[in-house]
Structures are given as structure tokens and as C-alpha cells.
Amino acid sequence: MPRKLQTFDVEVVDKEEISQGILNLAYELWCLSSTAYGPKGQFILVQANELCGDAFVLTSSASRILDRISLDSSVGVLMAHFIDSHLKQYRDGGHLCILLVSKLLLELFSERYFGLHLALEWSVAAMAETEEDIEWQDEEALVAAVRGIVAPKSVANAPDSLCKLLAQTFVGHIPWLLHHPTDRPLVKVVQAPSQSTAKALSHTALVSVSCPRAQLPLANVIIALFNVTIRPSVIDTPSDLKITLTVDTGDYHLAMAPSSSFINEAEMLVWRRIADKLHDYGVHLVLSQKKIPAFLATYLNQLGIAAIERLSIHHIENVQAVSGARMLSDWIGAGITKDDLGFLSEVSHVQVGDKKYIGFVGRPTRYSQTSRTRPVSTLIMPCDDTIAFDELDHVVQAAMYGLTTLLVDAAVVPGAGVTETYLVKQLRLKATALSNHRQLERIVECVADALDSIPAVEATFSVLDGAAVKRSALTTALTLVMALLRLESAVVTAP
Fold first, then answer.
1. Looking at the predicted structure, is the pLDDT value of residue 426 above 90?
2. What are the C-alpha distances in Å from 405 to residues 203, 463, 475?
């Protein structure tokens, strides 16, 4: 039973209770992850919102499963956070990490942990023997790297042709990412139920907002982009108007509150001034995160300036990237310069299935380190099932992120279980040399057995895994196991 320390408002949990909690959690994690991973992996239904019965996802991705697991024990929280630190860095390799942790805990929990550090060192050294740097000019190698991320996630039902499309799409982002290696590629996925094949639109952002059809299409478009508030912020509207009356007997000072009509007229005056300035700059289109007041929208229309309102922050980010417009935080006429404006080759209505979008097409350009313009891609994907599409979008973003990490560390290793098989062989060879140290021999053999128990991904094509991802998964797993095997007691916040 936990001992409560009143002074510190905490409980001390003894080793027996901790041990049972770790073993129970390891068993549950093994069952969950082994069910979702591999060539015969099954979908896991995860409740996304406990207050909404129909809010759920079907997934085989480790990060999406761990995000919503309810962990009541302090050790469970520790394990989840430890693994999550790996997932946040690489967005891949989560199942490998979970399977290793749970299998080793189930096999080794009653034994000493000495020897795990040797197994880790030997595993990392053996994996280094299989590493080679990916050649960015080698299209097949890039496709193989995408397969390494996509293939184990069966719920997305992604055809192999998607891997080639993702690799080609990523190549278009490389010039910009070389200057910004920590940023994610801007790739949006749009569902097209009736489409037979996927296609990619370069330098294009699709936004599901409305615009009067009569105002589109537009070509060679200069745009202004506002992302915070529509109200003019520089208006002289004092709480009191001071009036001085001079009569024969002296001066009398009166104060009176301005009428709402006065304030409205002042706002309209500022809006007219800003709209006139945009017109003088040759602006064709104004986009705003907030609703544009009817008066301003009408006046812009009279000046021949189209307006699109209520864009989400994600839409604004994509339009800003494809156009190079500066995001203006307020309608301050004096603060707007020509340098704040963006340019689009075309703005038009686009029909995808039964949904209507507005397509913003940018001009292909050389992306410099200081430019506000950056590559934007839109993938139109055939997918009838909304739930499967949600997972497909997650997989696409994981693939883009995984390729981005290869720009920092280009080392790859054979995928589809080939590297794990090689590590198993090398560890078992090392274990035979430890026959005089039975404890160490058993520990190394257990690590080899744990790696051997991980399902291989069936692949008829070449598959590559990022070496950094796999190395991190191994290191995270064995470090976590060593930490948990050292636990004698735990101090947790009292309920």
C-alpha cells in the first residue's frame, strides 16, 4: 500500500506495487503495438473526445495511439513521456521503440539490468556498418525512404504509387528546406472521393472559402493579407469632445460624449483611406482572417478589389507562403507599403469532387533565405472513407517530416526488417563470446530475441529507414528499460 507523506502531500509507492504496474503496462503496450504494427497490422479505434461518441480515429500510428491512452500510474506517465520524446523528434519509429521496451520488460524484469548498455553499444555499432548516405538525385532511393515510413501504416491503405508522388513532391521543397532544415514542408492533402489517381499541385494552395464567382478568375494578382483584426486602430475617438464657447461675459467650457454615428463615420473615413491606398498600389485582392464589414467590402468592390474573408490561420499561412505577402496585423493605412504586398499568378475556383475551393497559384521562384515566399504543395488524394483519409493525411505529413530529417542526417539503413535481422545475428554472435558471463549473455540474448520478435514489413520493392530514427528508437527503448529496472520506489502526488 502507498505511504502518504502529509507534509509534502505525496505518496511513496513501494517496489512490489511498481513492479506489478510496470509488468501490466508492458503487457498492454505489447498487445496494442504488436496488433497495430507490421504487414498484418490491424486498425486501433481511438476515442478522440470522450464527450463526443462519434469523435474517433482508426489508426496504426504509434503517436496517435499514445496520445490518447489513459495512464493512471506514475510509471505509465514516465514511459509515455519517454517514448513521446522520441516521437516528437522523428514522428516515426514509435512502434519499434514500444515493442522493444515492452518485450524486454516482460523478459527481464525479475533480473538485473547489467548488460543492456553493452547490447545497446553493440547494436548501434552493428547498425553503423549498414548505413549509407542517401543520394538526393536517386529517385528510387527517395521512394524507398518514403516506403519505410508509409509501409507499416496499413490503415492509410496507401498504394505504392503514392510513395513516388511524395518523393517527387518533397524534391520541390528541398531548395528552401536547405536554408530552413527545422521547418516542416507545407503540404496540404485534399480528399477527392471520385478521383482514380492521386496528383500533386505545385506552388498551389487550395482554400475552402467562398468568393463571388463574378470576381474570379484573376490573373497576375497583387494581394494584401490581414491576419488579426479588421478594425482600424488609429482613430481619434475621445471619450469626451471638449468645446469652448466665447460670449460677452466670458469663456464657457463644455464636454459632451460623441455620438455613435460620429465614431462610425470616423472608422469609415479610415477604411476609405486604406482602401484608396491599396487601390493606388494596384491591389486586386484582399484576404482577411476576420469578417470584413459590409461597408468596407462594398467600397473595395467599387474600387475593383475582390475580398475574401474568414480564412483560418492555416489557410493564411499557406497563402502567405505561396504569395510572399506580409501578414499585416491591423488595418493601419500609414503602415502599409508596397513591400507588404504579395503576388499570385492566378486565383480561381477549383472543383474537387463535390467540394469547391479557391485555388491560389504562385509563381515558381528561387527560394532564398530571406524571402517570405516558400514552396507550397497540394496533394489531391482519392479516398472515399473520411476516417481513412484522416489517417492518410497523418501518414503523408509523417513522410514529409521524415524526409526533412534526412536533410540533416542523410544516413539510411535497409528497411522492412532487414536491419533488425542483421542486429539479431550480430548480437547472438556477441552473446556466444560471453559464455563465461552467464548474466551478460542472457541479457544480450534477450535484446536479440526482442528484436527478432518484431514483425517484418512485407515489401516487394526496396525499403529504406532513416538511420537516426532507428538509432533513436533503440537508444530510447534500452535507456528506458534500464531506468525502470533500477526503480526501487516512486514518489507521486497524492490524489
1. yes
2. 22, 17, 18
CATH no. of 3-133+409-493 = 1.10.560.10
Packing angle, helices 94-108 and 15-36, rounded to 10:
140
Sign of the dihedral through C-alpha 255, 257, 262, 264: positive
As beta bridge partners, residue 251 has: 246
Q: Is the pLDDT of residue 56 over 70?
A: no
Total residue count of the chain as it appears in this document:
495
CATH 3.50.7.10 segments of the chain: 204-363
pLDDT (0 to 100) of residue 461: 76
Rounded Cα distance, 380 and 352, in Å: 8
**Cβ atoms of 176 and 374 closer than 8 Å:** yes
Name, in order, each residue with C-beta under 8 angstroms of 437's C-beta and a sequence gap of 6 or more: none
pTM score of the predicted model: 0.75
Which CATH number is 204-363 given? Answer: 3.50.7.10
- pLDDT tens profile 76-86: 777 777 787 77
Give the alpha-carbon dihedral of 454, 146, 375, 409, to 10 degrees. Answer: 70
What are the start and end residues of each CATH 1.10.560.10 domain in the chain? 3-133+409-493
Q: Are 296 and 303 in contact (CB under 8 A)?
A: no
